[in-house]
Every structure is written in structure tokens, then in C-alpha cells.
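Deviations from the work plan: none for this task. Representative record:
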Amino acid sequence: MSNKAAEKPAPATAEDTTRVELRARDVSFDWSATPLHWIPGDPSTTHTINVLHLLLPAGERWFVHVYKQALPLIRDESLRADVIGFIGQEAVHSRAHDDVLPRLRALGLDPTPYTAQVDWMFEKLLGDRTFPPGRARRWWLLERVALIAAIEHYTAFLGDWVLGAEALDRRGADPVMLDLLRWHGAEEVEHRSVAFDLFTHLDGDYRRRARTWAVAFGALVFLWQRGVRFFMENDPLLDDGRASVREFVRGGRQGVLPTTGAILRSIPGYLGRGYHPSKEGDLARAVAYLASSPGANGRAPDRATATDAVRTDATDTAAARTAAAPNHRKGV
Amino acid sequence: MRRLLTVAAAAGAAILVKRALGRRVERSPLWPMPALPEPVSGVEREAPRGFVLGVAERTTPAEGVVMLRLTGDRGALPDWEPGAHIDVVLPSGLVRQYSLCGDPAEADTYTIATRLVPDGRGGSKEVHEQLYEATEVEVRGPRNRFPLVDAPAYLFLAGGIGITPLLPMVRAAAAAGLPWRLVYGGRSRATMPFLPELAALAASSGGPADERLLVVPEDEAGLPDLAAALAGTPRDAAVYCCGPDPLMDAVGELCAERPPGGGLHLERFSPGPAARPAAAGETSFEVELRRTGRTVQVGADTTVLAAIRAQALPNLPYSCEQGFCGTCQQTVLAGEIDHRDELLTDGERGDSMLICVSRARGGNLVLDL
């Protein structure tokens, strides 16, 4: 199997020895057996997590779009390599979540009214033409790079949370959905520093960091609240579905959602002067999960050409599982 | 009293506002944001994924060779051209690639032929033991990594079951009235499929039939004389070869000394980057960057992406370099594309390509860059 990306020497700097080389993974998930309420008996939590599928396809596509424009501005080769790896991972994330949407539609919950508006937000409101060419547009690019850094603080937070959310396993959550969330979460933890490093490299202004954090946090709360409400009200299996704060707090207590306290505690984290994402999350646990994720290992990287794709890959996956298992247990 | 009225009025107004807002949000989940008229997210990609075909007919055209005609219940299958292959997902989950050896004009059928390799990696054994009439298999493709280029004459060199991708090429050359010659080696006549059809094609193509077709069974005549075959071919002919590795290596060496004008085209049984040197069978070509006003050379041993980054645009975005992330997708203004990714939909394949893996088919390309 050829992993061209893996052949490149891993960039390493003196102050950061835990650096992993970033590369996109080809994934496949089979949604044909996933039920609408994939956390059995808990539609509220299911839909709170499902909001990810509404926001991420358009959102991560937008990350890629913005970063392609930022690429020529990078003056640091190791950061450039990170950003290139980041772009591929985000592009695959976007499509992996996008593939869930037709399944929701097939189960009677058409997400299009919501996603069409999210599409408008990312393609138009946050698109390139919001400001005229010249200095305003350069300002707008920096502003969007800073917004992405703030959002990535939360994706890494959620990613680290889902990797340790054993309550989801205990509740019998759909294994394919859990694999999607944990593979994605693990890659978010893996590349947690890239967006912040890029922002620091291009600008790093503290006022911009604080301002864009406020916008991103406010927007996430707004989008999430509307998203849960949309799902609960349109769920064909619920007679009188309603989103409520109480259900959210309950989910946090039961460990199937992040706790409200943890979310509030993350705020001073990002706004602290000494903040760096490499201090957040459990990288070892994320890397161990990536080695064992069925979706990220179930298909040969070279399935286009390798005739013995399935067999070779099955052996590799088994080997990776054995190798990763001790770490994984330690991490959890 | 007045204070009470004010409070009541404010409460009433609040209730009205909440209701009005509720109605709007019910109709438009992210009110006051508008919707994108043509949504991008959640649109099911009609990616060229697999489709299920059934075995309509199983025959044995030669000793140890099984030929399957695969048909679907939805009529016409995707078009293909000589040299194309399909991926077949066997019942065990193994994925194997088989060249299409039927007639491209037969739109509802894919025909493949496999030889049983008892000590092989299991694929042919599964085909021989498990695929019978009415068995269903998942098929992906077709894709063509062995396309027939335009040339004034052709020399085809087949070893054993390597005849499968060459058979439709021979038919195409014969139908076009172009001069062609096939040297077909095998262990014995009984194990070599398609001999009657090839003889008929040779007889109908004009000229002495043994000029067209040279059948070389090893038990009667030993190994084919490749040097003589190449020497007797017009200089501008295209040479196509498919067969076991020793045959391919021998042809490769002979052609390195005296490169055929139409190029040497190889198809190995076991493709994959480890088995196939990057340059084998690849051709070099030019890519014009229309907006930049530059033209870059893409050598046989490099990719379009690497060539453009090295020669013209170092900041061109890309990421996975394996054809699945989609970052390097570019619009193609002119030229025929040899798509090697598995990501783009058929619609996208019309005018765009992933430049990290896909190449030009035959001529040159013009990109909107």
C-alpha cells in the first residue's frame, strides 16, 4: 500500500516533540442499518449530536475554501505541510457527514430546509464577496481564518469528549455512527493546533481572537439551538417533539452529551493569553483510535488499483488493532 | 391600575412576538437567514459506486477458463471502450479486476473471462467455484487504464488469459480496417480461449490470415519470437501487450531498444503501485494553463499536480495525493481525461479532474488555471 503522504519526512520542531504528521484518511461508512434514533430511546440527545451533520458538510467545505486562499500567504514550510494535511482531513470530514443526510431523508426526516440555509450562510454570508477586493478582502480573509481557529477550539473539545464518552457505548448507540464521530473527533484532536497556528502565523492579534471567538460561540449556540428544535419538531417518530435546555443538561449528567460546566469552562481557556491548543485533549487516545477505527481502516487506501485490497487490508487492520489496543485502554 | 395595564400589554406583546417568531422558525429553521436556492449539502452523490449485476450465462471457452456474461435489471450499463476493466466484488468480499472482453456495443452486458489459478490468491478460485447463473455480484467501474490510442497500425501481444483486454481491441482495429497483427501465446491450443473468433477476424481483415494472427501454443511451438514480431511491424505502429510478467518484461526490453512510434502499452495482471513501476505504460504529455498562459510538461514518471507545482504554480492547493480528498479538482477546458480517482461523479468527470492522480488520455490537456 502506498501512503504517499507518509513517505514525506515528518515535520518536527524543537519545542513540540509530540507532533504528528497530518494526512487525510479515506473512509467509508455504511449507513444502511442506522436507525433514526441511533441512541436507543433518547431522541433528544440523538438530535443534539445530529446537528453536527447539518453544520459540518457546509462548514468544513468552507474551511477548505478559506484555507486554499490562505495557502499562498504561509511562510513556514512545516506549517504549510500541516495546513495541507488539515485541508484534506476537513474535505473528507465534510463529505463523510454529508453522506448521513440522505439517510436521514430516507428515514423521513428531510434536513434540506435547514441545510439550505446553512449553505447560504457559508457560501454567501461568509463567502468571498461579502467585502470588496483590496484591503477589505484581505481583512475578511484574516477574520475568517480567526473564526476557523475559534471553531476548531470547539471541534477539538467535542472530539476529545466523544472519544471518552463511554456512556454512548453503554446506551447501545449505533456503532457506525459512533465510529464516524470518533474517527472525526480523533482527527480534530490530531490537528487541533493547525488552525490556531495558522491564525498566529498570519495575524495573531488578540482583539481579533476575542472578537471572532464571541461571534463563533454565539453563532454555534444559535445554530445548535435552532438545529435541535428543527429536528425535534420534524421527527416523524415523535408526536410532540420539543427541544429543551433541561434535556440538554440531563444528557450532560448522564454522560451522553458534554456537561454544561465543561462547555463554560472552555471559554476562559480559549481567551487566556497563554492559550495553545496543544495543551488541550488527549492526543495519544486520538491516535490510538485512528489506528483501530473500522471506517478509517476498512478500505485499502489504494482500492483503485490493489487487486488484493480487501485481504491485505483486513490483515493490516487486525495488526493495527493489536498494536493500538494497550494504548487505547490506557488512554480511556 | 395603570402599571398593571402596562405589564399586561407588555406580556401580551411578548407572547405575540414569540408566536410570530415561532411560526417563522417553523417555516424557516434559521430565520432570518435565506436559503441557498440550489443547496449543496445533503445532495446524494451519484458517485460511480457499485451496482449489482447477475450472472446471465456461464460458459467454458477453453480448458480452465470460465467466461461470464453479467447483466443488470436496469438495461443499459455504463459505456466502455476496448482495454477497460471492471472491479468485481466477489461473494467473500475480495475485490478483483477483470478486463471486459465482450462487445462494447452490447450495452446491457459485461463479459469477463478468468483462468483458474489453483495456487493463486483466491479470486479466480472463487469465480470458478461460486459464480454460476443467477449469482449476483457487485461491480464497480468500468475504468480504462489501457486505452486504445489512434495509430496507423497495431501489434498485439497476448500471453494466455492476457488475451481478454486485447480481444475488443482486435475487433475494433479490424472493424476500422486498420492493419493489425496478434501474436497469441499459451500453454496449449486447448487452454487458449477465443481461437475460432480470432481466426474469423483474421480471415475477414484481408491479406493472408497468418500475417494477422500468429497462434503460438507452447507445447507445439515453444515461446513466441517477440523480436521477430516487433521487427516485422511498421515503425509507427502502437504495441499492446498483456500477459504474464516475463512476457511483459521481455517486450519492455525489446521496445526500449527500438521504441514503437505508437508507443508501448502494457497491462499487467496484478496492477498496483508495487507491482507496476510508475513509468510503465504511462505516457508524457503537456498541460496548458489557460489563465496563467503557461504550458507545463508532465513526464511519464510524475503527476499533473507535481508538474504544475514544480513548473508554474507552487501554491496550488492539494492534500491527499491519492485521489480521494478532492482538494486538487480543476476544471478542464479541452483534452481527453483519463480519470483515475474514485471520487468524482460522472457529471463532474465531464469537465473536471483530480490532478493528483488523473492524466491525459492520448493527447494534451488545457486547464482553467
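The two ends of chain A are 30 Å apart (CA to CA).
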